[in-house]
Amino acid sequence: MSRVQDSSILDDISKTLTVEAETAKFANIPREILDEFHTDMPQDAASAAPEPIQRVQVPAADFRLEASPRTPPTFQAVPPENVARMDMNALFEAVRECVGCPLRSNRKNVVFGAGSANADLMFIGEGPGRDEDRQGVPFVGEAGQLLTKMINAMRFSRSEVFIANIIKCHPPGNRNPEDDEATACLPFLRRQIELVEPKVIVLLGAIALKYLMGRTGITRARGNWLDYNGIKVMPTFHPAYLLRNPSSKKDVWEDLQKVMAFFGKSRSPISGR
Ligand code: URA
After folding, report:
1. Under 8 Å between Cβ of 126 and 189
2. Rounded CA separation 150/160 (Å)
3. 126 lines ligand 1 (CB under 6 A)
4. Does residue 156 sit in helix, strand or coil?
5. 239 within ligand 1 shell (Cβ under 6 A)
6. Which of 16, 24, 206, 210 has the fewest CB atoms found within 10 Å of its own CB?
7. What is the Å distance from ligand 1's center to 147 Cα?
């Protein structure tokens, strides 16, 4: 610190102490100590030109170096061979911790699946919507309520069946899953199917058909039995599609009756459906 700066700081302290003393706050400070702070700095130092401020010249290139590129986020999918060895609990933990695709940063909750781990009947949808993301449970929104009615109409309860999706995290704006997202997530679903060992899978909509079966064209495929590793698969329309196109409910009901017939369940005698 320069002597000029020393001088002005000492003056400030002195003035403060004087005021404090005069207001009796520090009335017990001896006069000679106060006087010491009044002592003028030597004349030559007080009048000397202020010390020039040293400005460090930084070449423009240095700023460019400082603005280093941000490291892109990394997505680390669990290797499928590890997933293939997991039991349901380990699978649940792996899904919960998953950072395998960009959806990890958008989700509130992963939506693992719900229902009985020994279910004979499994429903597979596309991916969690906003309500499912909030609750961490599949098919609880408007489309989910319609699915629950469909399950009940088939004379099953939600707790008897297993409900899952192609992807386990909500995509922003409810868009369709990207290929890399579905690919990163599919080993989890395939392992769930292996563990649950359902007798029948009902595939809900085009996205489920595309990613589980590698097929396009839900309108042509619906209502016709397919095979997934020895398990019977019934593709049908997604309940969200039915909300937009209620006239297709009768087609879905036909498809679901084929599944009921497989399980030896008759149509409800009360509703006569
Ligand atoms: N739509 C789906 O495909 N899955 C859900 O869980 C909810 C809505």
Report:
1. no
2. 13
3. yes
4. coil
5. no
6. 24
7. 9
